[in-house]
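hey can u run this one w/ 3-phosphoglyceric acid bound, need the structure tokens asap thx
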Amino acid sequence: MLKTLDDLLKEGVSGRTVLVRADLNVPLDGDRITDDGRVRAAVPGIAKLAEAGARVVVTAHLGRPKGKPDPAFSLAPAAERLGELLEQSVVLAADVVSEGAKSTVAGLSDGQVALLENVRFDPRETSKDDQERGEFARELAALVGPGAAFVSDGFGVVHRKQASVYDVARELPAYAGGLVLSEVEVLRKLTADDVDRPYAVVLGGSKVSDKLAVIEALLPKVDKLLVGGGMCFTFLAAQGYSVGGSLLEEDMVDTCKGLLAEAGEKLVLPQDVVVADTFAADAQTRTVAADAIPDEWLGLDIGPRTVEAFAEVLGEARTVFWNGPMGVFEMAPFAAGTRGVAEAIGKSEAFSVVGGGDSAAAVRQLGLAEDSFSHISTGGGASLEFLEGKTLPGIDVLERS
Ligand code: 3PG
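ok here u go:
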């Protein structure tokens, strides 16, 4: 039986220490957070606990450090932003479960919040060895002491069988946070048999190989699958077109041929693309038909005719899921495709879900109104794996506990 944060609040948390797993894996430029969406999404759960008098110990990861402390992956920027949003100071412990963490936790008063340093600074967090992860999870549980509880609210990591996501939920009374619950509720609508149709999915991002499983899972369910981003060039190559210097996964061409044959008219590829003579914001650019990409030039965005065609499908859809940018939106000359698709989804009456760190970041960085989408997921891999129908260890463990 899945217990929730609300159940925990009813039990009473005043004076108790609560360990919260959040996903604070935000994009950084140096030590500046370029998209704080995940920090904002973590705030309501933490705030509820602090307001109810809990001593809140947050654990999270940033990036993929090599299992040892590395200042480039410190959670310091996230601690600062969390403090601003919570309007109270958030102490960042000097380490994960050692002396720094112990003294930080010991110094907490009721209603205060501390953040442990990047949990992936300890190699046991991501270990494949159950014993090692279990031992680390017991250290995390011991850190928060007897009587403590665990709230799992890092939706973006629930697909990871890692100590602070999975094993610790077996060491402490475990509860699902509001973010995890709301994400699951939304994504369930996208996998329901009675999904509102037409159902359109837009996929972008760089690699077909990353999206293969979700394409295979979604193809039988959707009415249209619109493909843009770097991954579209492997599909264009599978159609027999030359893609110049564009991103190409040679070893996926045959797979893409198979998918095109299976999908028929469901799968829609770009008709035109924006090409550049080099991968740079000040490159020379042209818009060309998808079957006329000049040698040496690289496709870095979908073209305006494609945006129009995609927008027409999206305008008629009743359910939309979008994952992955349509081009290199971080560079202004290649942002129009992502912007156009995002605006078309925003305008449509459809139940619309934006999934994936990059597409969510694109919505915010391009200054688009977040409330024009029904839901912006904090999960990248997690939302894709959910749609693929995979068991998510971080949720499974809560359901079993
Ligand atoms: C994400 O960015 O999708 C999550 O924070 C998980 O990060 P990971 O892919 O490094 O496990």
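The first strand starts at residue 17 and ends at 21. anyway lmk if its weird
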